[in-house]
Amino acid sequence: MKINSHFLDLKESYLFSTVGRKTAEYKSAHPDKDVIRLSIGDVTRPLAPAVIEAMHRAVDDMSHKESFKGYGPDRYCYGYESLIDSIRGSYSRKGILLDRGEIFISDGAKSDLGNILDLFSADNTVLVPDPVYPVYVDTNIMAGRKILFADATEENGFLPMPDFSVDADIIYLCSPNNPTGAAYTREQLGEWVRYALEKDAVLLYDAAYEYFVTDPALARSVYEVDGAKECAIEFCSYSKTAGFTGVRCGYTVVPARLAREGVSLNKLWARRQSTKFNGVSYITQMGAAAVFTEEGERQIRENLDYYRENARLISECLDRLGIRYTGGKNSPYIWMKCPSGMDSWQFFDYLLEHANVVGTPGSGFGRNGEGFFRLTAFGTKENTEEACRRMECLLAHRG
Ligand code: MLT
Fold it and tell me: Which domain covers residue 301, as residue numbers?
């Protein structure tokens, strides 16, 4: 028996597990300290009332033999039509028309971003921005794929553009970006689509934060760009849009026209999902279907505004401190420069020990993240205000 030795090439633990462990160690050594976590992007607002009501109705359905549901419907890989149609509605309001069979319901973007790799040969070369959501890198390391990095730096506004002299087969993009908060315009995305089409590559587009976009120049879906249906798969999630981090539901769009080597990726993905996945629970799907109703959208927008206000508080705090940052406008993440030349983990320790505030060290997202630090706007307003107050006391007099 041989293990998959590529696992040995991974860092010992996943970034957010390391942050969690260090925070827990600090807490157990200082049980009296009130530690504020602005690290992992976990939401704090309760689910919208429309979602809760839909879930209650679904629970009732499950308690009567006439309306009880077992496995989800086969036809759309266990996705219920009412949910799929509500997602189609959300896309059509962005001017994008999708068929039911192009939308696959998942238990969240993270799982599908990893699982999609089943479709591609291990020989493919992967291009990943640096810094980046660690899942893209770690899942490809597990498969032993060659990974190239596209530098996201202050100079390019953390938005790398394609280099046509580099050949890649699989390209990851995340916009609005995790961790930097930077977001591509339609024109910039158009360049990536042109690159993918020219290289016969596939774009894996993570749109988990699209509901934070308010600037009309910025893209909310890769399919706003002509040609994207021939080269891109889009991953979306209810986690940040509707507070589903603990509920688990997302969706992946694999266009019917997307084919490589004459093979439909939509058909391959359907085959993969029907073999390795048994769908998302009926109760969860019914809750998710309420998100894109008129009432549901109004309610989730109130929650999104709450987080936007947190982002504004953090941004203003950094402005007062004279610390440079990106994000916080069309994104729930604020990507700040570590003060006084500290490296990312030094600043993590410094902020934890002296302000009892936890963020995420930028170097955990890649080499170019060194010297940066990510704060999330998903905390409560009270904690965000208090964290800002503590940061201002601590950092006001540092160079
Ligand atoms: C993050 O903090 O980067 C996200 O919450 C991670 C995730 O969505 O898996």
Answer: 5-47+297-395
Whether residue 182 sits in one domain with residue 130: yes
Measured in Å, residue 67 CA sits from the centre of ligand 1 at 36
Confidence of residue 399 (pLDDT cuts 50, 70, 90): low
Which of 276, 294, 312 is the C-terminal boundary of a domain?
A: 294
**Model confidence, pTM:** 0.96
Q: Name the residue of 17, 19, 23, 40 whose CB sits within 8 Å of the most ligand 1 atoms, as the mutation to test its pocket.
A: 40
Q: CATH number of the domain that 18 lies in?
A: 3.90.1150.10
Which atom of ligand 1 is nearest to 376's Cα?
2
d(CA 234, CA 252) in angstroms, rounded, equals 6
Domain count, the chain: 2
pLDDT, tens only, 341-375:
999 999 999 999 999 999 999 999 999 999 999 99
The answer to whether residues 97 and 217 belong to one domain is yes
Distance of CA 5 from the midpoint of ligand 1 (Å): 26
- Count CB neighbours of 10 within 10 A: 14
Q: Using CA atoms, how far apart are residues 188 and 195, in angstroms rounded to an integer?
A: 11
Question: Do 196 and 324 fall into the same domain?
Answer: no
Residues with C-beta less than 6 Å from any ligand 1 atom: 40-41, 110, 133, 178, 239
Going from the Cα of 220 to the center of ligand 1, the distance in angstroms, rounded, reads: 19
Whole-number average pLDDT of the chain: 97
Q: Which residues pair with 250 in a beta bridge?
A: 106, 237
139 and 111 in one domain? yes
Give the rounded percent of residues in the chain with a pLDDT score beyond 70: 100
Judge whether residue 103 has pLDDT over 60: yes
**Angle 140-146-152 (CA atoms, 0-180°, nearest 5)?**
80
Whether residue 398 is predicted with pLDDT greater than 80 in this model: the reply is no
Phi and psi at residue 14, to the nearest 5°: -65, 145
Please list the residues that pair with 264 across neighbouring strands. 259
Q: Tell me the CA–centroid distance for residue 9 and ligand 1, in Å.
A: 22
Last residue of a domain, one of 268, 294, 320: 294
Specify whether 113 is located in the same domain as 210. yes
Pocket probe mutation, ligand 1, options 113, 178, 239, max atoms within 8 Å of Cβ: 178
